[in-house]
Design goal:
Helices cover 40% and strands 19% of the residues. It is α+β, with helices and mostly antiparallel strands and 235 residues long. The strands form three sheets. The protein has a five-stranded antiparallel β-sheet with strand order 1-2-3-5-4, sandwiched between helices. Strands 6-9 form a two-stranded antiparallel sheet. A two-stranded antiparallel sheet has the order 7-8. The chain is globular and about 55 Å long.
Length: 235
């Protein structure tokens, strides 16, 4: 079976242009073929993929036909780079993938614990595979053994994000991986710059989401204190 034929098996899931994008990225050496699904969501499917040397990468594919592109535009519409895209579904979704790639790049370069991005083309993002032989579980599925330590590491990452001029914007136990008892933050497509109109409201919401999670595991955090710490030490 040719490389192109391997991706044709997904034609009932993805549109033709997405199939061509997968083939193009494969031809450029980013991966040989998709291996197994890591997560299937309303807006994107995430797969592990095998490279020629047998190593794994992660491939995130935004589903053009089902994405809520109008909601996506609410996040990116304030960015002058994306003006004029209001009713252009594919362009908005492609911009969303580009946005996640850029946010990952900025966060990674500043020292945050996020997957390394490798490539983005149209609605497909290729990035580092987080896990050993199996993909690392989300925090919602595997609570840390040392909750206080995990919480401290997470707050450290929020400070790094702030220093990089970023707010995650949609942080919860659903988009934090527990990899060897260390938080790896994922799903950065919602990330906004500090200049974004309600950036600090989003930061507070992120921390409140974490407060709810950690309270379930008998660790109380002071939202106001954490907000001040992030702003003070993140500069």
């Amino acid at each position: 079976m040719s490389s192109k034929d391997k991706f044709e098996t997904y034609k009932d899931v993805f549109d033709d242009q997405t199939i061509r994008t997968l083939f193009k990225l494969s031809s450029e050496g980013y991966f040989e073929e998709l291996k197994s699904p890591i997560s299937i969501g309303k807006e994107s499917n995430v797969f592990s993929a095998v490279k020629k040397d047998g190593s794994l990468v992660c491939v995130k594919i935004y589903r053009v036909n089902v994405c809520d592109f109008r909601r996506m535009y609410q996040y990116i519409g304030a960015d002058p780079r994306f003006k004029g895209l209001q009713n252009k579904r594919r362009q908005i979704i492609n911009a969303w993938a580009q946005r996640e790639y850029r946010n990952l790049m900025v966060a990674r370069e500043t020292g945050a614990d996020v997957p390394t991005p490798y490539a983005v083309k149209s609605n497909v993002l290729v990035m580092e595979f987080i896990g050993n032989k199996e993909a690392a579980p989300r925090l919602k599925d595997r609570p840390p053994k040392d909750v206080k330590k995990f919480c401290s590491l997470l707050i450290k990452n929020l400070k790094i994000f702030y220093k990089a001029g970023l707010i995650h914007g949609d942080l919860s136990e659903y988009n934090i991986l527990n990899f060897n008892e260390k938080p790896i933050i994922i799903d950065l497509s919602h990330g906004v710059k500090l200049e974004y109109p309600n950036a600090f409201e989003l930061l507070e919401r992120d921390i409140k989401n974490m407060e709810k999670y950690f309270l379930k595991h008998k660790v109380k955090i002071d939202v106001r204190k954490i907000l001040d710490l992030v702003k003070e030490n993140g500069i």
